[in-house]
Amino acid sequence: MVKFVEIKAKSILQKQKFRDNWFWNRYGINPYRGCQFACNYCDAITEKYLVHKDYKDFSRIIYTKKNAPSVLEKEVRTRKPDVVAMSGVTDPYQPAEKKYELTRKILEILGRRKFPVHIITKSDLVLRDIDLLREIAEHTWCSVSLTIITFNKDLLPYLEPFAPSPERRLKAVDKLNKEGIQAGIDFTPIVPYLLDSPENIEEVIKRASEYAEYILIGAGMTLRSNQRIRFFELLNKHFPELVGKYENLYDKQENPPQDYIVRLNRAAYEFCKKYGIKNYIPPPCFERAQRENFDVANHLLLIAFFKEFKSANPYSAWAYHKASQTIEDLNESITEISKRKALEELPGVGKSISRVIEEFLINAKSERLEKEMNTWYNKIK
Ligand code: SF4
Asked: Do residues 150 and 267 share a domain?
């Protein structure tokens, strides 16, 4: 039995220090705390995010921020429109949304104020709001990612006991794209030993490629604090033969080893090439001041995305993140700075990144990105 507790939020629109290069968001909104889908791998029950006293209540007590729309209405008046991720922590279309309609009310406000939106969910309830999403897509930018980690009906009851079936999610992706709303798949997490076989990876990517605009690959499932405790409870009860394998793979770390992640990323990448689907969300387009600076900044973030994806090292592209942020924050046009040969004077922009910028300003593309996107591809040939 799920209990709903109404709470009052002091603030709702959370600004991030840096732009995310997976979902392109700069803000996050979470209208609910706790999630009824109760996925056994969920990392939102880690101590960092947890608001429940006992992590086992995460899916039994759902806190609803009933005043979220009125708080947001005030906040958006003083904020510049930029991509909002719904939700950063819990599912915005969990069953509670049918009753409370907080996500819908929030989308109405964001749409009126021309804030671009990225939605991530496991529920086809998102189709209820297709009118609002279409409007946002027409006037600014919108992308919807439906999570699918497998179509294996034997495993899903253990991993995602209360989420809608992957077939329903795939149909939702199809419908959204047909309605002019960019939609793709979030293949996160690839659960070690249960879902990391080439057969599962290929099936998810192949079926996604029939309907989705993109598929994001999340090979590094975390196991930390309460998430780790809960996942090992699942293993001990239903997959005891995997306990030792997980202990070996993770040891005392929160992530699997880099070489394991790289191997899966590469396998997934090859399937993406085979089935002709992007493994990234193309950077957003929407009206804003210094639009050219924004495009350059996002180009650098996309290079960073590929560097990180291929190395499984979150620090491998720090220079690109830093340079991107510098350029996004500039008041002066990047073209003017380039004309007076002052790109290298910008904080974080060295010789090699300034060359990428110059090339992008002329051709709207760069060899660096092409190389980062295609290196594995060339090696395979
Ligand atoms: S849908 Fe997302 S937030 Fe909800 S339980 Fe599953 S992983 Fe956690």
From this structure: yes
